[in-house]
Design brief:
Blueprint lengths: L2 H14 L5 H24 L7 H15 L10 E2 L2 E2 L4 H14 L1 H19 L20 H6 L6
Antiparallel strand pairs: 1-2
Length: 153
Amino acid sequence: MKNKDLITLAQTLNQVSELKGRDFAYAVFKNKSLIEQEIKIFEQLRKEPHPDFQNYENERNIVCINYSKKDDNGNPVIVNNAYQIEDMNAFNADMAELQEKYKEVIGDMNDARKEYEDFLEKESTIQLIKVKYENIPNDVNANLLSKLQFMID
């Protein structure tokens, strides 16, 4: 199981925590506790944003707004969470300048994101409490069962 699987498993354990069965409930309870501790460690590994990251984001938004198409009220047109840009060549030129200005900030944030993503892809060392297949409640569906596979013996 990879570290990223713990996040999904934590969500699944919350979904099945109301199901009955002493052995199953015990395994859910113990595993929730173990996983919560592990996820706290994950969050500590997330690097704080570069001090100038917010400045970059603010300036990036201004460039996007300046080059975006405007609606009848003068507001930027946004489709699927993306500004609709009118003059792509001028926009790209300004964005290139901005990215050069904040090269260190962008590099730092990209490195931090890559490190975190790499960590999530590593094998987890957590030792989950296993539950025997016959102790799984009858009302668990196939979708939940596939998410619980890491704790089934």
